[in-house]
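Our platform keeps sequence and structure together, in a single record for each protein. Because each token names a local backbone shape, the row as a whole describes the fold. One such record is reproduced below, unchanged from the form in which we store it:
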Amino acid sequence: MPLTVNLRHLENRNLVLRGELPLTELDFDAHDEMIRVTQPLHYDLEIEMLDDCLLVEGLLRLRLDCQCVRCLKNFEFELELDPWTLHLPLEGEDAVSIKNDCVDLTPLVREDILLEFPQHPLCRPDCNGLKQASVGKAFETAGKDESKPAAWAELNKLKL
């Protein structure tokens, strides 16, 4: 069920929404193989009707399963927008879409969450990555076959 607000409920008082938004509603099309979303979004919002707009304030929290871009270890990343504020005009050319007296907040939440995804997830800020010694040795010995003599060794035997 999408995160919607009925404007009629806001006529007399502010509205408080708490709960979880399932992944199917968020429709994250993440093409980043280092970040996976496996848990629902938690929200705790207060919505207030102003003269010709909605003011949404609160907290958004999402847990991401990430892989470090330096050392390739798996780790969890807690993405939290606190405080999160959204100002939605109800009139004018920038007005939000209203259907059956309801405003759908889901696309706006999705956009703000995606903007907060880590660009290069790191397990620790001081992560050193993979050990250089093991990578270097594998690289040095990868092209050499020690059972055959070098091609120049035969030329060195010539007496010219």
